Automatic annotation (TrEMBL):
Residues 29-136 form the Calponin-homology (CH) domain. GO terms for biological process: neurogenesis. This is Calponin-homology (CH) domain-containing protein. SMART domains: CH. Residues 138-223 are annotated as: Disordered. It comes from Allacma fusca.
Length: 223
């Protein structure tokens, strides 16, 4: 659902009219003013010097139209001639805008560059309606993405607080109990491991400080 902002409203929100087509009860000039205000709102946000005074006339060179498209989509329209010298260059500007919008998935059925250039009000209003609809869809996607990220972050925090300690406790239960050997080594051995009896020769080596027992490991290797 597209939303259009109007200066005639006391509503503080940016978008006012949720419409699928211009309501018949609204006067034709009011509809034009609504779309004009909506476009100028984004031109102001983008700090564009030019604003639309006459919607039916000002967009026909394609320059201010490209400004509106860029302000709404936050993307650059390529191949726009900023100072068109003839009708052909103006038509090319409008064509560039339409090609760019079509690439974004904006519906342009029944809208032609020639109609915009010739100032056909129906085509101009249809174009701005589709552009406003695209903007509203982008806003909804941004909100959904933000909510999803927020939920994901909350789930991760909850997992750290609840699942984390529980997992650590369960992991500790899986480890067998360890005892320290009576010798000089600090490497623990399982409590159920039987200590082999030393032969008289091994006892003699132990007395000399030779590590010949089960805790003498090659370099870089250990338990």
């Amino acid at each position: 659902m597209a939303c259009i902002r109007s200066k005639y409203s006391n509503d503080s929100s940016e978008d006012l009219y949720g419409i699928t087509r211009p309501p018949p009860e609204i006067h034709h000039k009011t509809i034009i003013q609504i779309y004009t205000d909506w476009a100028n709102h984004y031109l102001e946000k983008a700090r564009c010097k030019r604003h639309i005074q006459d919607l039916q006339v000002d967009v026909t060179d394609g320059v201010i139209l490209s400004d509106v498209v860029e302000a709404v989509t936050n993307q650059k329209v390529p191949d726009v001639i900023r100072k068109p010298k003839n009708s052909s260059q103006m038509l090319d500007n409008i064509h560039s805008c339409l090609v760019f919008l079509a690439g974004l998935g904006v519906s342009l059925e029944g809208i032609t560059a020639r109609d915009i250039r010739d100032g056909h009000l129906k085509s101009i209003l249809s174009l701005f309606f589709q552009l406003s609809r695209y903007k509203q869809q982008q806003k909804q996607q941004d909100r959904d993405r933000h909510n999803l990220q927020k939920q994901s972050a909350e789930m991760q925090q909850t997992g750290i607080k609840t699942v984390g300690p529980k997992h650590a406790q369960e992991s500790s239960k899986l480890l067998p109990p360890f005892n320290k050997h009576a010798g000089n080594t600090s490497i623990p051995i399982p409590a159920n491991a039987s200590t082999p009896k030393k032969t008289p020769q091994e006892k003699g080596k132990s007395a000399l400080g030779i590590g010949n027992g089960p805790h003498a490991f090659p370099c870089g290797k250990g338990v």
